[in-house]
């Protein structure tokens, strides 16, 4: 399974993705608003989980590479949320790109391809996204994707400790109908 955009290839994970993903996961700027992957083993386990999720559900946070150079850039895709909250069960769209690829529209391009797949191929009724309330860059991207935020739906992430500043999360939603309307 692969998704193509003008500049990107979203594809299944391969073993050669492990070192650059681990390096990206060790970058404090990349991980500023994400739960840490503190070791190479944790990074590899994250990739293994994505591979398993792809096998079970037909989608995951795919590896992203440049079509022009073949360079690994990060991970973008869809994921069934694995914790209990008032908005679950749900499928989320998410992204994490290595720092050299920030600010060039790659996350937007890959996230739009992921949403298109989710709405048009999987026929999802809705996709959500969540991020730390402090993560202004991701919140801006969610809005650009046409996702809607309601302050009343912000929540405390159950897998983040109470004293952690990342615990408070914003929730954005996009329905298939809204997706179709914005693509028309």
Automatic annotation (TrEMBL):
<dbReference type="InterPro" id="IPR016181">
    <property type="entry name" value="Acyl_CoA_acyltransferase"/>
</dbReference>
<protein>
    <submittedName>
        <fullName>GNAT family N-acetyltransferase</fullName>
    </submittedName>
</protein>
<dbReference type="Pfam" id="PF13302">
    <property type="entry name" value="Acetyltransf_3"/>
</dbReference>
<dbReference type="InterPro" id="IPR051531">
    <property type="entry name" value="N-acetyltransferase"/>
</dbReference>
<dbReference type="GO" id="GO:0016747">
    <property type="term" value="F:acyltransferase activity, transferring groups other than amino-acyl groups"/>
</dbReference>
<dbReference type="InterPro" id="IPR000182">
    <property type="entry name" value="GNAT_dom"/>
</dbReference>
<keyword id="KW-0808">Transferase</keyword>
<feature type="domain" description="N-acetyltransferase">
    <location>
        <begin position="8"/>
        <end position="177"/>
    </location>
</feature>
């Amino acid at each position: 399974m692969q998704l193509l955009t003008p500049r990107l290839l979203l594809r299944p994970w391969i073993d050669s993705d492990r070192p650059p993903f681990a390096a990206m996961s060790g970058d404090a700027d990349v991980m500023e608003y994400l739960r840490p992957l503190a070791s190479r083993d944790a990074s590899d386990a994250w990739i293994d989980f994505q591979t398993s999720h792809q096998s079970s559900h037909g989608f995951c946070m795919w590896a992203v590479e440049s079509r022009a150079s073949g360079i690994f850039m990060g991970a973008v895709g869809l994921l069934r949320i694995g914790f209990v909250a008032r908005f679950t069960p749900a499928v989320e769209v998410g992204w994490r790109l290595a720092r050299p690829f920030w600010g060039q529209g790659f996350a937007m391009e890959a996230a739009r391809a992921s949403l298109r797949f989710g709405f048009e191929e999987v026929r999802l009724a809705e996709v959500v996204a969540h991020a730390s309330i402090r993560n202004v860059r991701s919140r801006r991207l969610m809005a650009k994707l046409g996702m809607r935020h309601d302050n009343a739906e912000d929540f405390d992430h159950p897998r983040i400790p109470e004293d952690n500043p990342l615990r408070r999360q914003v929730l954005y939603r996009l329905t298939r109908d809204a997706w179709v309307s914005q693509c028309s």
